[in-house]
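Record format v2
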Amino acid sequence: MNNIVVLLPVLIPFVAGVILIFFKNFSTIQRTISGLAAFILLFSSVFLTYHVYQDGILTLEAGNWSAPFGIIFVADLFAGLMTILSGIVGVACLFFAYKTIHKDREKFYFYPFYFFLLTGVNGAFLTGDIFNLFVFFEVMLISSYILIVMGGTKYQLRESFKYVVINIFASALFLIALAFLYSLTGTLNFAHLAQRIAEAEQTGVFNVVAILLLIVFAMKAALFPLYFWLPNSYYGPPTAIAAIFGGLLTKVGVYAIFRVFTLVFIHNIDFTHSVILFLAGATMFVGILGAVAKFDFRHILSYQIISHVGYMIMGLALFTPYAIAGAIFYIAHDMIVKTSLFLYAGVTQKITGTTDLTKMGGLLRTYPLLGWLFFISAIALAGIPPLSGFFGKFAMIVAGLDQGQYIIVFISLLVGLLTLYSMIRIFIYVFWGEPKIENDKDNPVKIMPLLLPIIPLAALTIAMGVFAEPIFSFSMEIAEQLLDPSQYIESVFKE
Amino acid sequence: MKTNYLMLHTITRIVTFIILSFSIYLFFAGHNSPGGGFIGGLMMASGLILLYLSFDLKTIKRVLPFDYSTLIATGLLIALLTGFNGLLFGDPFLTQYFDYFELPILGEVELTTALPFDLGVFIVVVAITLLIILTIAEDDS
């Protein structure tokens, strides 16, 4: 069997990153290669997902060593969708970076590490083995350490030091949890783990490991109470980097939680998934409080990331096909909208020179297109129909009501309202009122090149709302595949 | 005061040879017995660092005029490309092949495609180690 297509979303950015190192001093060549590579990457992810959709789950046994001994890559529909999303976010942020990244940063290997980051992210999505999940997490994190500190301003150095420390701690904990798991089951292959844990007696030790892994992934996904590192560390780096971090990195943690708690630890749902439900509610609520309290564009967005991770986890915790489909729809929506919101923050920062809301104002008069595009993304995030945010939330809330989980439903509705409030507040402060910067009207900043990567994202947001029906039925298929681990296991152990 | 480095220089000249040849031995011993690209690369890097320590940076830079970051990329590329050779024969990524050949002088030798992969690792390890240490060393002045 030769399913190289499974590995393409990992190999393409890896090869591209390596080749880009050779051209570190040639800006134009770097841009050409990276642009091409990003589009090929997106195309290969779409191709992979189409393949999976047609033929069922695909696997690749690296080096021809069969499962459970070798390294397995598994592409199911969920992983395929996530690679498509990371491709979209990757292309958008790359094209934004062309216009905004400083020449010095380009020379210091911005593009190679950008692609190594994508390698790690896609690898984490496609790996079929929890140890390689750790490895790809590390690939992703090491690249992110470099991207987050790139430029070396004092603020960046201070905040990224915390980022590095907390992530190294999380990685150590991850390794400990893996050692625990291996000593209990004798395997680290996802499919094999799922089999063995299903056969084993459900003792409390499995809960310990499950919670250890949950802590690790919660740290990456910025769940309550382990979100404290996120707002400040995403504040420092340039917009393009903050946008790809905001769009992608926390979702990798969310993906890992989904993978582990739909495939491996599904035998003590009363315990594990009620912990997750509690975390979901707390994350949503605390995150949105932060967003409401802050007066800085980027800080608000960072807290919105935290709050909306809560929604995704809520879908998992309810653990019905409908709720999980809603959560998957929501992940897709959130990755696209969050990235575009960070990019808007970059554009307004370019125009006004600040991210402080109180110092901006009146941009709607000079830049109407920017204003209305932002308005679309903002109300999409808040979940106003017919935009993309509504349908995922709606499905999860309906599922929550069916299950009688009224508290979480109440919290999620309240958080939706507060999201709307905080987004509209940004809109009012930034775009209404009198322009606070002089000579604004006579020579407006040319923002059209900056808007180019944003417009497709905004269009996608609208399209996801308008064509919610087919996309939701696709999410429903993903959810059913996730909730039926036997499909995953059988595809790994074919014989 | 001019310090006399005679001892260090003399010993380094001899010891470096031993270290470097042992590192190459380790590299070829790899993949079936203890050794391999990583450990061989580390040992070669330590030999080179000994050279940097006993002579000064400028002299060695003249002897080894490599741009280490390009070397890292070269090594990565070699390792990656050997991964693709499985595809030529319809096998998965990273499949390795081996066979036994009669070579002049050496006699029967096992040649594997793991060797170029290891060579890539070897180059990456040497280049990264030296790059890190030299960056820290140059920072000082």
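The first helix of chain A runs from residue 4 to 22.
Residues 28 and 275 of chain A are 50 Å apart (CA to CA).
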